[in-house]
Amino acid sequence: xxxxxxxxxxxxxxxxxxxxxxxxxxxxxxxxxxxxxxxxxxxxxxxxxxxxxxxxxxxxxxxxxxxxxxxxxxxxxxxxxxxxxxxxxxxxxxxxxxxxxxxxxxxxxxxxxxxxxxxxxxxxx
Length: 125
What we know:
125 residues; mainly alpha; 78% helix
């Protein structure tokens, strides 16, 4: 079981570091959604490390971070369209800042992690 945990840790760190390098070196290719995703992946790593839960929890944290980052970017784009009374097609021409929707993503993901913590500590220990 220790080898499996180590493999999951190494795999998660390699994926996150690679993703982070891509976001930093080629921000135009990766875009704001991937910036938010990178932040959420690092928060997942810190959460698992400091709470001392099994790294196998990354199995559902990674898809959850994709969903939260995508939702936050979508909501940021739609809010921008509504506020500026634009046509929906104009969103493809817009260059969104990396931090747009980041606060929303952090709030939603924090709620998700609190629920995970409560389930693990109360029901599974």
